[in-house]
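General statements about sequence and structure are easier to judge against a single worked case. For one protein, we set the task of working out the structure tokens from the amino acid sequence alone. The sequence in question and its structure tokens are set out directly beneath this paragraph.
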Amino acid sequence: MPTVIQNRQTSRDNELPSKICELLPPRLILEIEAHIRRIGRIEEIRLRRDRCASLTVGSKNIMLESLVRGDEIDRILAGVSGNSLYAHSETLKNGYITLDGGIRVGIVGRAVLEGESVIGIYDITSISFRLPHRALSVGAPICRLLTAAKNCEGVLIYSPPGVGKTTLLRGVARRMSSGECAVRVCVIDTRGELGFSLEGESFCLDVMTGYPRALGIDIAARTMNAQLMICDEIGESAEADAIISAQNCGVPFVASAHADTLEALLRRTAIKRLHRARVFGWYVGISRSGNNDFNYKITSYEEADEYYQYR
């Protein structure tokens, strides 16, 4: 049976980042800060043109009273992009811009298509600020699995969006790259948010920011001689190729993927390939029982494979 562990996250980030305060209208900042004082940490701020703003806390959405006007959306977008959307065109085509401090800004509107590919976006209708959080005390169960691992087996963390996979990966990176038994950790930070709060003189840690995952994984294995790789939101075929190749070089992986259940996770084509290659010795589903509490549902490869073989 899968093992379930509870872990309390003691780190709290109960203040709006200064960059957010520079961008948002004062009346909206006051309303958001009032909610933070009442409920603690928030995870997302969503702004919609000519609609009320909202906050996300776990799986709960909190509607605010402040309506965001179209001209305010335009000013916020100008601030986010530094008055140059063109300078961010590559990530904007994928729906986001990353600000300093690991803040990912989701941006949607009217897409310009070339075939099936988005080549531009205009008439911006919604902006979502995803706020990163420091991971000072989480991830110990994951690190214990890695320490006990044999044959370069890694850990795949899964959950629906917004539960805290990225925060948990940061915690694992901090723990595994520090202390008397530190290993050389490479963080492949494709979107520029995973490396948040990983500064520090005592970390045996390399952060590769902006690299496509498959390319970053290959460089980390062959050039940086990593002993552990960490990356977020895997699931594409090219990424699976790179991960399998890295494991063949003797480098274990800690990664995350979106899935509600282990069954749903193992139905994904790229994850099936990774499972058959036995890249991951454990699959860890996470949930939150409170604003700062992680629950870990740990399933070994053998237990997962028993399910896989009969489906």
Observations:
- The longest strand covers residues 117-130.
- Residues 26-39 form the longest helix (14 residues).
